[in-house]
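Reviewer comment 2.1 asked that we show a complete input and output for one of the modelled complexes. We chose the magnesium ion case, as it is the one discussed in the main text.
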Amino acid sequence: MATQSLYRRYRPRRFSEVKGQEHVVRSLRNAVINHREGQAYMFSGPRGTGKTTSARILAKVLNCDNPQDGEPCCECPSCLAVERGTSYDVHELDAASNNGVEAMRDLIEKASLGTPGRHKVYILDEVHMLSKAAEAALLKTLEEPPPHVVFVLATTDPQKVSETIRSRTQHLQFHLLPMDVMEDHIRWLAGDAGIDLTDAALQSVLRQGGGSARDTVSALELVASGGGEPLEITPLDEFVEAFIEKDPGRALTVVAAAVQQGRDARTLAEDIVRHLRDCFLSLMAPELVQLPAQRAEEVTGLAQRLGAAAIVRSMERIGEILVEMRHAPDPRLLLEVALVQLTHEASSGDLSVVLERLDRLEHQIAAGAAAAPPARPAPVDPATGRALGGRARRAAARARRRAGPRACSGRWPCRGDAATGTGGVSGTGACTRSCGCARAGHVGG
Ligand SMILES: Nc1ncnc2c1ncn2[C@@H]1O[C@H](COP(=O)(O)OP(=O)(O)OP(=O)(O)O)[C@@H](O)[C@H]1O
Ligand SMILES: [Mg+2]
Ligand SMILES: [Zn+2]
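Response of the prediction step:
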């Protein structure tokens, strides 16, 4: 296989080759055809969806000797120079590493100088990383840009770009690629690159890529280097299920399988936190979740079942051990202990657990009366078949209580859980809380 990575080799050269961003492509091509291109664009969207690629195509067509229908010819000296990265008309600056005001001043000074082509295009990547001073300097130029200059500000995090900058740009939003578009693209690309791909391997590649074209192509490369075997993907949903079900075994099994496949505990912990963050966002700010639609729906379902408080507690706990792991001789052990704690509600009887239970109850109630159990009919006297009166009903209830087992009622004073024999108010009047009823009145008993 060629040494150049697949995602570089298959970088789209024309707008028509950029997949899944038709709205962006249409707008840019029309602007070019009508000579109404803007002077400042902001391209925002998830990583690896075509922002830098589209910025370069725009730079190419704006300087192309022979543009056709809003597309660059990709053959003239200017187009070839842009593709090789040697054009004097196109300047790329990574704001993540050049975030200071000096770099910005330098750029602005040069912006006003002449250029061999018709347009001088500045592509500022990760523009949300600019310092405040650098942002202020950029703002000045954006207010009155030299006539031949076009700025493309690219970012994965548009919320972090100041409103004043945003308001001076034409904002084009890139999206994760829809699964069917990505599937067609990967099938074509694999065929072109001579990679044999089974359906199972293709599905694992698509899942691993999560809608990002670059991540998907990188996953394909991994599969190709492994002889076309499907990628072993750690099922992160299993951790969330384990938290919901309070099932430590389930979480530990996934850790064991992942470690056996050569994953290290730290990156696994990072993946779990990232997944929990997606769960959290899907409850609090779904528009910020960067997942394909179907996957986002699955994650929202999981998040609703676990509840926001438990998600936050899990994120915090695993976040803590990520720090501890740096100096730990056995990071896997730390991860396993944290997972066991998080799956074992009774072992951490603090206020957060109470909040979690409240949160879950609220959700259950909000889930609707439709799911509520039917009202229990009045007890019937087996001898007469008639409904029992008040005194008889109380006697029947007493008999039921004697017969047990009965789950903790959650009422104070707690009588514990008759089924397990745990919890209840001890001689001193304090609930041991091991029944898990977690009534607020029990805390500190
Ligand atoms: N829309 C797309 N259609 C086809 N291929 C794409 C697309 N987006 C990205 N790619 C592939 O991913 C590679 C990287 O894309 P690009 O650099 O444009 O992503 P980006 O959005 O700028 O990502 P980042 O936010 O990480 O800078 C391209 O070389 C190409 O192989
Ligand atoms: Mg980029
Ligand atoms: Zn050209």
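Residues 64-66, 72-73, 75-76, 78-79 surround zinc ion (ligand 3) (CB under 6 Å). We note this here for comparison with the apo prediction described in Section 3.2.
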